[in-house]
């Protein structure tokens, strides 16, 4: 691209950027002014609807308190109390009920949305005393006969209303009305307002409760959207009570829960706020909305949240016209800037063309390791050439230094690898010597010390039998008791010596093979720690050579030691499988689980030891763990079969040693 073109584009972009910045500032200022006004209008609308909802319930609270203080209610309470304690002091209960029925009928007629007005007593499982019922809002009122009165003592609103202090009311959650334990058909959303009716002794007599058909009010809420927006009403769990799609309302009562958190995840925290707020959220389709959240808390009742939403583009409709006007003005400015840039660019590129010719004559060549540039040139080109020459020299020096550093690093890495190899060989040799010494000491303890102890035990038993044959001579019983204690001590010493021998070198590995040795090690671990071990072996014997078999035993011992010390487990599983090419030892526990930091910690010497033992015989070790599933140690060892005829068989090698093993018994 020519310099003239670049200059023109630069100038046009600068003008465009300036126009864009100015437009954004204007748009931002307008947005900062208009959006708060629109949000305040939306919040005021939501608060008004929430206030209407609270007023709707407050009216019912006043009616319920008035009925609770009705003289007929007190008369029924006195009549029922007198029936249990003595003759009534006034009118009969039937007369009081008739008077209350007439007044409640008038109350229902005056309030078309009241569908039930009831007086429920505490006695007889919360049986209704008076019940005025309207099948539907605005319909005729019917006094329910005594035979159809129901027990309501187990209903939540009955229990909660009795807990409310006298003179206060309980407001139930809005849900679908139920009759005889089932939701009415068609479903009717109901709000219940109740207050307790105490006796003069202070004991509760019952409650007065009104059921309000909320269908009309909720329908009005559903249609009260602002500027084409929607209105939602949810309970404190987020269940929809009002939704533009009425099929999603009261899903918690109909077995198909539908919550606002599922449609507006960003509103989950806003539902718990005590004050009204306005925020932005996206619906399920991704449309950006402005949402006003207005809580409505009833006294001694539930907390409801009213949401009014308006599409964001509706609130910003006036800003859209500003954007269009700004865009047209910007295009006009860019067109003018293009013409002006063409004139200015031509005037600037004339003197620069001479510099361009001089620069084009500059052709750097790589001569050996240095860049050949015309350093003797004058003016800006000479300055640039000398800068290139210095840059070339510095680059070459840094390259040489880098080569020397790479060479030194390679030498150090090779030395470290050689040193590590020597350490591995030394460690392998040390382990071999340790295992040979363990084997020798175990044999000495088993054969020599074991034989001596067994012989000593037999001698003591022979002495005890001889003393016992002499009868009851003076002091004979004390000597026999002392000899018995000595025999017990010798037996304990024999057991300790046998345990030391087994810990130094499992005898089963030499006499019976790897698989019995694994099982015996699990049994010894259970005897020492009480941690159960399940052992699963596919075959009864293994074809592993002595060195890898010993490595498998040592890995198992270390893994079980970690289970005891760190896992806090009650059970471990050991699985040993063998194929034609490899054998796999897997130790799994159900404890706390090893972490990644512990696995990769260079100070985890137990894990490092197991890993080195596996690698020394050509295998590998993998350790995994999680907090819920415990720790799994898996060692994979390649199968190295012993050459045919390369010595006596395992059974033959064990034959002469089995007699020595009997010394422990």
């Amino acid at each position: 691209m020519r310099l003239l073109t670049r200059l023109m584009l630069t100038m046009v972009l600068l003008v465009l950027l300036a126009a864009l910045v100015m437009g954004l500032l204007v748009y931002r200022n307008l947005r900062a002014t208009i959006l708060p006004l629109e949000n305040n209008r939306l919040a005021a609308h939501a608060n008004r609807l929430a206030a209407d909802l609270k007023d709707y319930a407050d009216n019912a609270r006043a009616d319920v308190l008035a009925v609770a203080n009705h003289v007929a209610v007190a008369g029924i309470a006195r009549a029922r109390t007198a029936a249990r304690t003595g003759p009534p002091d006034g009118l009969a209960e039937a007369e009081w009920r008739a008077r209350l029925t007439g007044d409640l009928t008038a109350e229902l007629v005056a309030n078309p949305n009241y569908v039930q007005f009831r007086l429920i007593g505490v006695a007889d499982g919360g049986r209704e005393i008076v019940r005025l019922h309207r099948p539907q809002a605005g319909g005729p009122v019917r006094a329910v006969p005594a035979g159809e009165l129901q027990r309501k003592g187990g209903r939540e609103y009955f229990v909660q209303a009795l807990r409310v202090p006298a003179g206060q009311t309980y407001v139930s959650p809005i849900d679908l009305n139920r009759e005889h334990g089932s939701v009415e058909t068609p479903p009717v959303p109901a709000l219940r307002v109740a207050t307790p009716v105490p006796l003069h002794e202070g004991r509760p007599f019952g409650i007065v409760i009104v059921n309000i058909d909320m269908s009309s009010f909720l329908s009005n809420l559903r249609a009260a959207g602002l500027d084409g927006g929607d209105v939602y009403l949810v309970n404190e769990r987020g269940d929809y009570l009002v939704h533009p799609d009425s099929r999603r309302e009261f899903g918690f009562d109909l077995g198909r829960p539908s919550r606002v958190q599922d449609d507006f995840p960003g509103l989950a925290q806003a539902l718990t706020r005590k004050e009204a707020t306005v925020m932005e959220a996206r619906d399920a389709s991704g449309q950006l909305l402005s949402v006003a959240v207005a809580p409505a808390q009833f006294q001694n009742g539930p907390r409801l949240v009213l949401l009014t939403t308006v599409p964001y583009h509706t609130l910003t409709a006036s800003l859209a016209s500003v954007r269009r006007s700004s865009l047209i003005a910007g295009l006009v400015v860019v067109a003018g800037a293009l013409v002006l840039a063409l004139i200015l660019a031509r005037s600037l590129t004339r003197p620069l063309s001479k510099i361009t010719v001089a620069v084009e004559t500059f052709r750097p060549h790589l001569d050996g390791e240095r860049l050949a540039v015309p350093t003797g040139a004058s003016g800006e080109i000479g300055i640039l050439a000398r800068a290139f020459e210095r840059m070339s020299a510095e680059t070459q020096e840094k390259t040489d230094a880098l080569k020397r550093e790479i060479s030194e690093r390679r030498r150090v890495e090779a030395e470290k690898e050689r040193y590590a190899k020597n350490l591995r060989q030394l460690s392998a040799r040390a382990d071999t010597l340790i295992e040979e010494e363990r084997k020798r000491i175990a044999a000495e303890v088993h054969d020599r010390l074991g034989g001596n102890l067994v012989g000593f035990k037999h001698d003591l038993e022979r002495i005890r039998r001889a003393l016992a044959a002499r009868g009851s001579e003076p002091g004979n019983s004390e000597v026999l008791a002392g000899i018995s204690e000595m025999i017990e001590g010798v037996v304990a010493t024999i057991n300790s010596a046998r345990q030391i021998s087994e810990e130094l070198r499992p005898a089963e590995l030499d006499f019976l093979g790897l698989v019995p040795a694994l099982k015996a090690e699990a049994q010894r671990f259970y005897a020492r720690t009480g941690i159960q071990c399940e052992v699963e072996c596919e075959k009864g014997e293994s074809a592993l050579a002595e060195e890898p078999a010993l490595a498998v035993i040592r890995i198992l011992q270390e893994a079980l030691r970690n289970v005891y010390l760190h896992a806090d487990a009650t059970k471990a599983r050991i699985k040993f499988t063998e194929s034609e090419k490899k054998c796999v030892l897997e130790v799994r526990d159900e404890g706390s689980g090893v972490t990644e930091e512990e696995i990769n910690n260079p100070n985890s010497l137990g894990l490092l030891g197991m890993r080195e033992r596996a690698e020394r015989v050509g295998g590998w070790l993998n350790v995994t763990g999680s907090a819920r599933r415990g720790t799994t140690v898996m060692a994979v060892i390649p199968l190295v079969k012993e050459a045919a005829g390369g010595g006596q068989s395992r059974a033959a090698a064990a034959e002469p040693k089995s007699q020595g093993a009997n010394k422990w018994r």
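Residues 253 and 568 are 46 Å apart (CA to CA). Residues 354-369, 641-665 have pLDDT under 50 and may be disordered.
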